[in-house]
Amino acid sequence: MDLFLLKKITSFLLMPLTIILIALILALLFHRSKPQLSFKYLCAGTLLLMISTFAPFSDWVMSPIENNYPVFSRSSAPVDYIIVLGCSHSSDALLPETTQLKTCSLQRLVEAIRIYRIHPEASLITSGSAFNQEFSNAETVKRAAISLGIPEEKILTENFPKDTEEEAQLIAPRVLGTNVVLVTNADHMPRSMTYFQQQGINPIAAPTGHWVKDNHGAKDWGYYTPTAKKLMQTTTAWYETLGRIVQWLKSFF
Q1: 108 and 10 housed in the same domain
Q2: For the chain, what is the domain count?
Q3: Does 215 fall in a domain?
Q4: Are residues 155 and 184 in the same domain?
Q5: Whole-structure pTM over 0.85, yes or no?
Q6: SS3 for 157?
Q7: Model confidence at 4: pLDDT above 80
Q8: 133 domain-assigned
Q9: What is the tens place of the pLDDT at every residue in 145-187?
Q10: Is 192 found in the same domain as 238?
Q11: pLDDT average, residue stretch 97-123
């Protein structure tokens, strides 16, 4: 089996929602034959669902991941490249490229354009493979950037990397010895920075798309109600934590 596919399947099986569903299915399967075991599975699945959708818990696990790097303001030296890591999109010829981009890719593009306005001397490097889409994520982000006013000659693409590790390996030779800004989501930034540092690149972090905002401000009652958004946030935090654990283990080999 392809290693990339194996990683995706394994991570899917370890996600909170998958574990919740497995626990609830087991509760149904053992309902008649082993009612006590069934009840334990039901309680475990329900408890995990409640915790994963509870905003204070979700913010508590996400904040330390997102707060590793400050937002980008301005570089003291000219910027050579702004690297926009790939995320996801859905190709649709009837829609503009900005609409084809999923939220994570759009967030990264907007941040890259903001930085480009501060440092117009820089070139953009968009990244990401096509997966099952007609065009690569790198190409789709490039077209969206052009539609938003970035000159085409200022954009380079890396159309083949399937994950962050491959992005670092393929982009590093292009930018070695230059002043680089790395744009990705705040939750993804710690792992991304490590991959680039392993390739001899020390980029300036430009995190975007923060999940947790105004964490110390006053909260109304709605903050404490379970939501699907917080389940997604908890899942993302867990995914990134697993990724960093794997990254740490691989450093020994």
Answers
A1: no
A2: 2
A3: no
A4: yes
A5: yes
A6: strand
A7: no
A8: yes
A9: 999 999 999 999 999 999 999 999 999 999 999 999 999 999 9
A10: no
A11: 98
What span, in angstroms and rounded, lies between the C-alpha atoms of 145 and 161?
20
Tokens of 148: 């938003």
Q: Which residues 6+ apart lie within 8 Å of 152 measured at CB?
A: 142, 146
User: What is the CATH number for 182?
Assistant: 3.40.50.620
106 burial (CB, 10 Å; 0-12 / 13-18 / 19+) is buried
User: What letter represents residue 224's amino acid?
Assistant: Y
In a domain, 213, yes or no: no
DSSP letter string, 136-195: -HHHHHHHHHHHTT--GGGEEEE----SHHHHHHHHHHHHTTS-EEEEEETTTHHHHHHH
Q: What average pLDDT does the chain have?
A: 95
Domain range enclosing 141: 81-208
Enter the tokens of residue 134.
């007609």
Same domain, 51 and 149: no
Kindly state whether residue 9 falls inside one of the protein's structural domains: yes
User: Can you read off the two tokens belonging to residue 113?
Assistant: 């354009």
pLDDT value for 26: 97
DSSP label at residue 53: T
Q: Which two tokens stand for residue 2?
A: 């392809």
Sign of torsion, CA 41 44 48 50?
positive
**Residue corresponding to tokens 């999940």:** 211
Q: What is the pLDDT at residue 182?
A: 98
